[in-house]
Amino acid sequence: MKQNNKAGKGKLFSVQAAAAPAAAFLTILIFIVSVGASAFRKDDAPVKEIRLIAINRDSVESVKAFETVYKVLMSPRCMNCHPAGDIPLQGDDSHLHAMAPKRGVEGKGVYAMKCSNCHQDTNTPGLHTPPGNPEWHLPPAAMKMVFQGKSPHELARQLIDKKQNGNKDIKKLIEHADDGLVLAGWNPGEGRTLPPVSHADFKKAWLTWIKKGAYAPKK
Ligand code: HEC
Ligand code: HEC
């Protein structure tokens, strides 16, 4: 009886051992994500929900979804706050910000040119007035998160590199789709074009890109 049990266990173990590389090959990773992001969406009642997020690798689908992500990230509503230099950009043609407010260590401007001096909590009505958000600022000097000038390959790699993305893991990256400044892109103030797809479609592409393995396009 005892021996049988042992033999049984041994067999089970060897089956598992054989299955492990297969599982690794299929690379199905399960992440447990408690959805803290729902704090941003007040209409979503139960906050303490636990969701399972399966990463089901598929490089073709992932790269395809990133095409949409890239189009949005490189649109002026997003790129204007993710410049290559230390001065934000303005307008649909992404010209350098008038009066050249500087990034500063925290991304909030320097001396008398603090972003919040002009950018209020909400959009100022009228044309060519500052868009508003309580968090309106550039990424900090130590973590510039540059989009401007990046190829799809470079940008995809940068987004998932914890050294360059503000130490964001998969969970935080997923949540970032509903970040206040990201949402602000779809409420840009009068006279500014919207990003090329809706926020819902952006979020769908962002999640697909990540859940299919966050692959970077070849170029
Ligand atoms: C007002 C300036 C501002 C605007 C506009 C803005 N962002 Fe950002 N973005 C930031 C700041 C600041 C950070 C860094 C803080 C953080 O990570 O929460 C950031 C970080 C990010 C990150 C994380 C970067 C990484 O490497 O993982 C992503 C992704 C992002 N933004 C996407 C967008 C998208 C998409 C839009 C447009 C719909 C957008 N941003 C518009 C300021 C902005
Ligand atoms: C002296 C006032 C002032 C200061 C200071 C200021 N801004 Fe602005 N900003 C404006 C105005 C006005 C506009 C709108 C210009 C237009 O539409 O022609 C604007 C527009 C922008 C835009 C373009 C938004 C879009 O969707 O195209 C970004 C990005 C921006 N500001 C970022 C910043 C950041 C980041 C800081 C701080 C580092 C800052 N601004 C400081 C006045 C200011």
Category from helices, strands and their pairing: alpha+beta
Which strand-content bin applies to the residues? 5-15%
How confident is the prediction overall: mean pLDDT? 84
Specify Rg, calculated over alpha carbons.
22 Å
Distance between the termini: 61 Å
Low-confidence stretches: 1-50
Tell me the domain tally: 1
Question: How many helical stretches?
Answer: 8
Protein name: Cytochrome c domain-containing protein
Keywords: Membrane, Transmembrane, Transmembrane helix
Transmembrane segments: 12-40
InterPro entries: Multihaem_cyt_sf (IPR036280)
Describe this structure in words.
It comes from Dyadobacter psychrotolerans. This is Cytochrome c domain-containing protein. InterPro entries: Multihaem_cyt_sf. The chain crosses the membrane at residues 12-40. By secondary structure, the protein is an alpha+beta fold. The chain has one domain. The chain is built from eight helices and six strands, in the order H-E-E-H-H-E-E-E-E-H-H-H-H-H. A two-stranded antiparallel ribbon has the order 1-2. It has a two-stranded antiparallel sheet with strand order 3-4. The chain is globular and about 50 Å long. Bound molecules: heme C (2 copies).
